[in-house]
Each structure stands twice: as structure tokens, then as C-alpha cells.
Amino acid sequence: MDAKQYWQEYLASQVESQASDAIYAVDQFGDSPDLAEELAQLVRSQIKTATCSALWEWETAGEALPEPGSKMVVLDGKGQPCCIIEITEVSIRAFNQVDAQFAYDEGEGDRSLASWRREHWKYFSRVLPQIGKAPSQTMLLVCERFQVIYQKDSIETID
């Protein structure tokens, strides 16, 4: 099933017509199929309720930043839709200003701030050179919080 079909099933599942055929993103977390699969499962299990990316990535792509209420079809490591999330909060903060609660909410590793810093530094060291940037302690991050609003297999929606 492709993301558009998945989105249409989500819309059809909405008893009250709160959902619309509005613009939505389609993306996966991480920079490899294995990482995308791992993170998709954390999102589906609602362990991962936050994510971040470098502001430079958004600027380079020329994309508008996400806003609360934005929805995204999350793809797994095989590129298949696995759930839909809704952004609940967006903030910009420096890498060295990410706190322990945000690290915990990202749901990765042992969920500690030390683990978050180590693993995200590795991640940014892989992806930022592709856009001519290098990670720094003061680089700005787009920090998002979200909630799962739809999973096809459980037909659960949250509004």
C-alpha cells in the first residue's frame, strides 16, 4: 500500500469529519532502512514521541518548518506506511540545549541525555556533510513532539 492509499484509509476511518484531505508529509525517520525500521517501531509503540533535525536541513531543502497540527505518514524501513502522526509542538534549540526530557521522549537507546548526544552527534556527522555542513554544539535543531493518531492494524485513532 502506498502512502496516499494509507492516508485515504485514515480519512475514511474518521467518524467525525475532523480530518480533511489537507496537505500531509510522507517521510521516514533515520538515514538508513535499518534505522528507519527501528525508529518506526518505536513510534508505533509510542515510545518515541519526539524527533529533531538540523535547521540547516530544512533551509537547504527550502521547506517550511512543521507546525503543530501538521500530519505525517511514517514509513518503515521498507518504505511502507506504518502509522500517521500529528505534530503537537515545534521548537528551535541548539544541540547543546536539548534537555534530558526531550532526549527521553525521543525514545532511542537507553533514553538518557548522554546517549542522545552521542548517537545524534554520530547521525549529524553522517548527514550534514551531504549539505556542506558540520555538526557543532550550537547548531540549531528543529525539535518536534508528536502523537500517533492512526495505525491501520489496530484501527486506533486519537483526536
UniProtKB/TrEMBL annotation:
Coiled coil: none annotated. InterPro entries: ASCH_domain, DUF984, PUA-like_sf. SUPFAM superfamilies: PUA domain-like (SSF88697). It comes from the Bacteria. Residues 27-150 form the ASCH domain. Gene3D superfamilies: Sulfate adenylyltransferase. PANTHER family: CYTOPLASMIC PROTEIN, CYTOPLASMIC PROTEIN-RELATED. This is ASCH domain-containing protein.
